[in-house]
Amino acid sequence: MKDMQAELRKLMDQRHMTGAYRQTIAKAVADPEVQAFLAANQAALAPDAVDRGAAKIYEFVNERNKRAAGEASFAPGYQPQLVVANGQLDLAYEPTQARVAAEAKAAQRALVKAINMPKAIATASLANYDPTGRDEALDAATDFTLAVAQAPHAYHQGLYLTGPFGVGKTYLLGAIANQLAKQGIASTLLHVPTYAVEMKGAIQTNSVLAKINAIKKAPVLMLDDIGAEALSPWFRDEVLGIILQYRMQEEMPTLFSSNKTMAELTRYLAGSERGDNEALKASRLMERIKFLAKEIAVGGNDRRNG
Q1: pLDDT value at residue 139
Q2: CB-based contact 116:195 (threshold 8 Å)
Q3: For the purposes of burial, counting CB atoms within 10 Å of the CB of 104, is it exposed (0-12), middle (13-18) or buried (19 or more)?
């Protein structure tokens, strides 16, 4: 059996090479990183591995140098690696650290499903949330995310964030969703007033049930701005009622934000006439909300216009 080092010396000996191609191959084989790989894997390589794998060596060095120079490479986002396969040299392309990080970030973003929500929630963070006047809300949000992380399959009562317009309730929901995503937990954020309008349109397309089912089974559901929708007994009973009843029975984490306190939302859902029947239906819905979430006041100044 031929000695591999002897074969390597033969390949690199310019007297055995003709033309620019041979010189290019010899230069690639002489590359320090290639030499280190060959030395580390000498026992696993066949004696003729360098000769037969010369093109692989050249491709490795060429693609590596392109990446180092910032030039377009054969496989953007992937880096070449020399490997041994059945005693011969081969080339594998592995994702770069940057690509791995980008894919992880994309996967994390995919865990947050935002429906008709402001773009700002995409970058919302508990770490950047100003606690001035709303430290209780921040503490409650932090405790909630920690509890879910520690026991993701257990029931955790959510939050009902109430406070004036512009104090950061929606942002806080987004920050909670993003923190949960870092922990590998999916959530859905839904702007209730817009959803109410869309559900009326769904009646015409006979897609009400499908839309309800798509929302009610979210691992973590966040209903933003509840109580700001136009009052509709149908939406209250046949949409919100079904969603919240399901989540209460299945003990699924649910959060809310509203400009109304729970007491104010109760009166609103009962309607202006407040007949006994409507008041009873409103109370039933509120019982589900109270089971699912605890009321937390969000204070501070108007961050949007202040």
Answers
A1: 95
A2: yes
A3: exposed
Task: Please give the Cα distance from 28 to 30 (Å, whole number).
Answer: 5
Q: What percent of the chain lies above the pLDDT cut of 70?
A: 90
Smallest CA-to-CA distance from 258 within 270, 268, 273 is with 268
Joined together, the tokens standing for residue 7 give 């074969």
Residue-wise burial string across 144-166, b where 16 or more C-beta atoms lie within 10 A, e elsewhere: bbeebeeeeeeebbbbbbbbeeb
The secondary element (H helix, E strand) that includes residue 128 is none
Q: Which domains does the chain have, with CATH numbers?
A: 4-95 (no CATH), 102-297 (3.40.50.300)
Report pLDDT for 12: 52
Task: Note whether 158 and 144 are within 8 A (CB).
Answer: yes
Asked if pLDDT for residue 17 goes beyond 60, the answer is no
More confident residue, 15 or 151: 151
Q: Please give the pLDDT value at position 95.
A: 87
Evaluate if residue 172 carries a pLDDT over 70. yes
How many Cβ atoms from other residues are within 10 Å of residue 213's Cβ? 12
What is the phi/psi pair of residue 6, to 5°?
-65, -40
